[in-house]
Specification:
Layout (H helix, E strand, L loop, with lengths): L1 E2 L9 H14 E8 L4 E10 L2 H10 L3 E5 L8 E7 H11 L6 H15 L11 H17 L11
Antiparallel strand pairs: 1-4, 2-3, 3-5, 4-5
Helix pairs in contact: 3-4, 4-5
Length: 154
């Protein structure tokens, strides 16, 4: 199930700085494929067992919160999700507060990916455009490999 709400409050500079630190440690940035490999999109999310932490993000940057199916011997968890332009707007706010070079590289790649997206129907997109989307997809996949800390993508 999901929960969608409109913004309840404008984030303060303190909120943004705190969110950056929390997201840097607990958040996830992905470039994912949708609908049978024909569309690729940006998504950022936070998964947590403390619903109130996710509410903090949802109140300031509305996306949606989904309930995750609990696994055996695990606590109930939820996931706050933003995609495409909403993810871009959120990540852009956090950039000045980042501390980790590795996470900054993910942000840079995510924002570059989103900025070059064509927002028209898919019928007029060239093969070169599709190839470029897959290049971003592959680069983010490499950056998201657990334990990989010293990669610079060009």
């Amino acid at each position: 199930s999901t929960c969608r709400v409109s913004p309840l409050m404008q984030p303060t500079e303190h909120d943004i700085a705190w969110a950056a630190g929390f997201f840097e440690g607990e958040g996830s940035i992905n470039i994912l494929m949708a609908n049978k490999r024909t569309r690729i999109y940006l998504r950022c999310c936070i998964t947590n067992t403390d619903y109130s932490l996710l509410q903090f993000f949802q109140e300031r940057w509305p996306g949606f919160i989904r309930t995750l199916s609990p696994r055996t011997y695990h606590k109930q968890a939820w996931q706050w999700v933003l995609a495409a332009k909403k993810a871009e707007q959120f990540l852009t706010l956090l950039v000045p507060h980042l501390k980790s070079d590795r996470i900054s590289e993910k942000f840079r790649l995510a924002l570059e990916f989103q900025s070059q997206k064509l927002h028209s129907s898919g019928r007029n997109r060239s093969q070169e455009y599709h190839d470029r989307q897959w290049t971003y997809y592959d680069k983010m996949k490499i950056l998201n490999v657990r334990g990989v800390h010293e990669i610079t993508i060009h």
